[in-house]
Amino acid sequence: LYKxxxxxxxxxxxxxxxxxxxxxRTFYLFNVPVExxxxxxxxxxxxxxxxxxxxxKEKLNDNSRLVDKSLRADAAVLLAKQRGISPDxxxxxxxxxxxxxxxxxxxxxxxxxxxEINILDSICALTHFGTSAVS
Length: 135
Known about the structure:
Layout: H1 2-6, E1 11-16, E2 26-31, H2 34-62, H3 64-82, H4 96-134
Antiparallel strand pairs: 1-2
């Protein structure tokens, strides 16, 4: 309860029954400010989207040489197949360690993309919740 109060998800109002402000003779009213909470959650979602996009950009920049090399290798294999040439010689353009590093980078990028999609779903729900509550 205290954690919710410190994070401003909850508001507390004290109603004193006597002028001595004794806690045992005080009523505590708890209130959840729904609109304020919705805006706080939207702000948190926007920050999370920005962070995910920044991490994805950083990872792709760190591995840009491998990504470019992979794209060139894929294009060369595709061109060889179109011309009827056996692409067996071209498939070894990436070493096994480069393939492993590229694979782990692409898995991370896919996970970041899925995270962005989930957060965008939350943003849509929170935005719709705000408009439906008004009407």
